Structure formats: structure tokens, C-alpha cells
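Standup, Tuesday
Yesterday: got the pipeline producing C-alpha cells again.
Today: sanity-check two examples.
Blockers: none.

Example 1:
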Amino acid sequence: MKATIDWTGNTSFRATSGSGHSVQLDGPPDHGGENLGPRPMEMLLMGLGGCSSFDVMSILKKSRQDVTACHTELEAERADAVPAVFTRIHLHFVVTGRNLRENQVKRAVSLSAEKYCSASIMLEKAGVEITHSYEIRTTE
């Protein structure tokens, strides 16, 4: 896996993935940023959410659950001192669908956390406390 980062002025950078997708990163205004994109640590948090959500949906599809939506909310706490690393992250999955079985949703979240989500497992090994919760919403 590869990526490139190119400075685009002030505290702004264009990040390009090895697969050719780009995203604009920027620092906060109090550090010279212009709010042109997410902060790098926000991207790290979004990457974790994407990785885990991908796993949960993949597992639910394989278990033939009729999911119509999956929304994941992440909240993170960071250290007060530099480096301001993540100390805690909580992921809350809101899974919507028809006739969803709670044991399947619980299993999908657990498997992602404990076995499949590389980002989550890597951050935990670095000392970040990661917790998960879920709720199920029914559609007719």
C-alpha cells in the first residue's frame, strides 16, 4: 500500500492513495489553516470508522441480514499534551433494516472489533481504549 502527500500551501495538503483517490487535508485556522478539508487526525478517525463499518456490513450481508442502512458515530478523546494521541475512541453503530436479528448485529460488531478491523486492532495495540455499541432500528 502506498500514498503520497503534496503540500498545497499554508497548512493544506493533498493526500493521494495508491489507488488514485485524493482528499484535501488542512489544519485548523488557529494554525494557519483555511478549513479546506479534514484534519489529519480526523482522517485517521474516519479511516477507523470506515474500516469497522465495512467489516460489520460484510458480516451482516454474509449472514443474510436485510440491512437498509448502517450509520456509525465515532467519538474520540485525545491526550492534552503533545503528541495529542488518541486515548479513547467509541464507535456506535446504528443498523437499520427488516427483521434484523440482534445476535447477528452483536456478532458482526464483535468480530470487527476483535478479529477483522486492522485499524481498530492496530490502534488498540498502540494503547488506545476502543469501545463499541450498537442499536437496531426497524424499517417496514
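Example 2:
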Amino acid sequence: MKAAVLKRKKRGFTLIELIVVIAILAILAAIAIPRYNESRAKSATTAHNSNVRILEGAAQNYIANEGAKEETWVTGSEAGGKIKEYVDKPEEIKVPKGAKNNDKTDVTPDYYTVEIEADGTVNVTPAAVALD
């Protein structure tokens, strides 16, 4: 009588299958990472533009209430004076990290300067940036 040999079916993935899965994941990562970085830069630039619009609006409110007078406001740790009446927490308003200029360089400096001129012109530095 022949001894019955029990064959156990092996379960699992072959090396080729694992390599194919890893290759697919690498391709997906190569596509996703640059798009993620672009999205981060675009959202930081959008936040920067929003900050500029908020500061311009606050300056226009100042002009409406106080009249057009020469005035300079600074955000960040140097914030003080009239800006605190027109902007909520100006010491916390700073240029978002990763915000890009039109030439794809980082927006500098870290904080904003708002200049109100006697003729009512409002200039915010750094200025708003056009989005692609």
C-alpha cells in the first residue's frame, strides 16, 4: 500500500506579484507627490492673496472712518496703533509658508506692510499674486 502523501497548498503571493504591486505604487506616488506640492503652493498663494484683500479692506475702512491720512501699518510682532482697531489679531497675520510669486519664487518678507497715502491710495507689501 502506498503511503498517501498529503500535499499542502501554499498560499501567498509570488515575488513577481509583489514586485508588480510595488512598481504600481511607485508610479502612483511619482504622479501624486508633485501634484500635492503644487496644491500646497497654490493654497498658500490663495491664502496670501486673501490676507492682502483683508488688509486692503481694513485700510479702506480706516479711510472711510478717519479720512485719507498718511499711515503705515505693519503686521506681525511689530503690529500696533490703528491697525488693531481695523484688523483682528494683526500680530498673527503673516505671509503663508510656500506662497509663490508669479516667477515661482517664495513670497517675502514674512509680514505685511500697509501704506495709506494722503490721496487715499492703499499699498500692501508684499502685494497679491496672480494665480495660474
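Quick observation on example 2: The helical segments are 15-66, 83-86. The longest strand covers residues 71-74.
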